[in-house]
Write the structure tokens for this entry.
Amino acid sequence: MDTKKLNLYMSVLKIALVAIGVLACLFLFNGADMNSTVEEQESFRDGAKMGFSIGFTGFLMFAGVGLILLFFVFQLISNPKKTVMSIIGLVASLVLYLILLVAGTSDSNSSLQLADDVQVAQGTINSTSAGLYLVIILIVVAVIAAVASPIMAMIKK
């Protein structure tokens, strides 16, 4: 396939997906909110606008996971060494997340000062805290790598 045509098709696909996403967001923004009556909220929740938005989000997530897996397969075939290193990094992140999840957190509904009508399970608090700590750790590691990379390059010269 011609590269120019492929770029054109991909641009059209991107614009179409963004337009559909904006439309789905507008459906949600113009829907019932907490100031609406319970009947309006239930009608919106069970209606076509919410169903479309959830369906589109599910489609994007399914397509994204499929494309990621397809990308890994192509990369594994074309550049196996770097791809295996990427997979090792993902597995290391998963292991770190599981360690943080098992370690738990001292946070609770009362320490987070959640309202009485907004109580969550301790497992939800633990998994959210583990995810936040993992992201913070990975950001710190990325910043250290970004700062250390030029320094290491100068030392090697």
Summary: The mean pLDDT is 89.
